[in-house]
Design goal:
It is a single chain. 46% of the residues lie in helices and 12% in strands. α1 (13-22) runs parallel beside α3. It is α+β, with helices and mostly antiparallel strands and 248 residues long. Strands 1-2 form a two-stranded antiparallel ribbon. A two-stranded antiparallel sheet has the order 3-6.
Amino acid sequence: MLPKSPSSEPPPKNWLKFLRWYCSPDFLEEVEGDLRERFEYTLATRGLAKARRQFAGGVLRFFNYSTIRGNGRRHPQQNIVSMYRNFLLIALRRLRREKGYAALHILGLSLGLSAALLLGIYIQYEKSYDQYLPNSERTYKLTEARTVQGQTTQRAIAPYAFARILPQRFPAVENASAVSGPYHEQQVTVMRENAEPSHFLEGNVYLADSNFLEVIPLEVLAGNRRTALQAPHSIVVTASTARRFFGE
């Protein structure tokens, strides 16, 4: 039979039994874990005899009134900080001893948290869609269902004439607007008095009819929402785009 390697030598059994006999269950796991870690370190660095003597000294050193079994009941419970410190020490100790098992659990926990986070973001996005509109519960997007080779796809498109015909044919429809886009790399020319025209290449441009600001009541910082899109070549821009076009 081969002798045990020093790294697999257990702590002295008699001293370990004595520790488990007198130590309160509230402190046993933490105390025994600390003594075992110190024993393994000393065994690897200074030999078996020194490790055994140090373990025995540690067992005797922890033998005091506060750790004796039964006395802890007459003392106040450990505060929250001590409790979490104990949990952290135990967790770190298990991480060092069972690296593969811990890595598997951490990976599973990470995947679970990531999936829950993504699911929460998706649900929040779906529930907040168009919620910025004052009448979001009465505002609808008209879509088209198209079937090609047995496969049906739903797309947010419809003929422009629908926006004009719907309120006439269906009294329940209060108003309608036609929108198309977005269009990218669109050239916008800004005309100024007593100045040369300025040209800008813009992305995320939408085309809309004159009813757009009535159906989608965006906040208007300057101008009249009823007439803003009535004239040909009219444009509505955000505040940041207006500063870029016209300056402060």
